[in-house]
């Protein structure tokens, strides 16, 4: 495989993508606050360190960047280093799935919010509401 992006450039790209997904997480948190929900952040003791945690009801929300976590049929596909990205994103997807099944086994329910869902905030809020009010 020919490496067309320098290590330095790649690390810049990764940092930029990470900032973006943090922005998505902040947007979801503030939507939840406006909906009147209170929650904790980054429960590192739970599988997958969920981003948003509703402890009393044992529910968690993951906010996933579409690129990093491999949202199907969504977003751009990198044109260079395809092998690198495919294996990295595949690993992320497997890790996400493993974390969610571990959570299920210990009685926690999880919801994945994709970054792209923020484009339709009313619909996203309705989805969060359904998840959080379900018994
Ligand atoms: Zn997406």
Task: Report on the architecture of this protein.
Strands 1-2-3-4 form a four-stranded mixed sheet, with helices on both faces. A hairpin with a 4-residue loop joins strand 2 and strand 3 (59-64). The chain is built from three helices and four strands. The longest helix has 28 residues, at 7-34. It has 135 residues and is of the alpha+beta class. The structure holds zinc ion. Zinc ion binds at residues 66, 71, 74-75, 114-116. Residues 66, 71, 74-75, 114-116 line the site of zinc ion.
Helix and strand topology:
Layout: H1 7-34, E1 40-41, E2 52-54, E3 59-64, H2 82-105, E4 109-114, H3 121-133
Parallel strand pairs: 3-4
Antiparallel strand pairs: 1-2, 2-3
What is the number of beta strands?
4
Estimate the helix proportion, in percent. Answer: 40-55%
- Which of globular, elongated, flat, extended, rod-shaped describes the shape? globular
User: Strand fraction band?
Assistant: 5-15%
Q: Measured on Cα atoms, how large is the radius of gyration?
A: 16 Å
State the low-pLDDT regions, or none: none
């Amino acid at each position: 495989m020919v490496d067309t992006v320098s290590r330095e450039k790649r690390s810049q790209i990764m940092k930029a993508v990470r900032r973006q997904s943090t922005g998505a997480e902040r947007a979801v948190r503030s939507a939840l606050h406006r909906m009147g929900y209170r929650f904790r952040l980054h429960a590192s003791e739970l599988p997958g360190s969920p981003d948003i945690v509703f402890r009393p009801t044992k529910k968690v929300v993951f906010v996933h960047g579409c690129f990093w976590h491999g949202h199907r049929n969504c977003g751009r596909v990198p044109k260079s280093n395809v092998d690198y990205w495919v294996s990295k994103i595949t690993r992320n997807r497997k890790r996400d799935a493993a974390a969610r099944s571990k959570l299920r086994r210990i009685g926690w329910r999880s919801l994945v919010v994709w970054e792209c869902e923020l484009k339709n905030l009313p619909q996203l809020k309705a989805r969060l509401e359904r998840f959080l009010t379900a018994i």
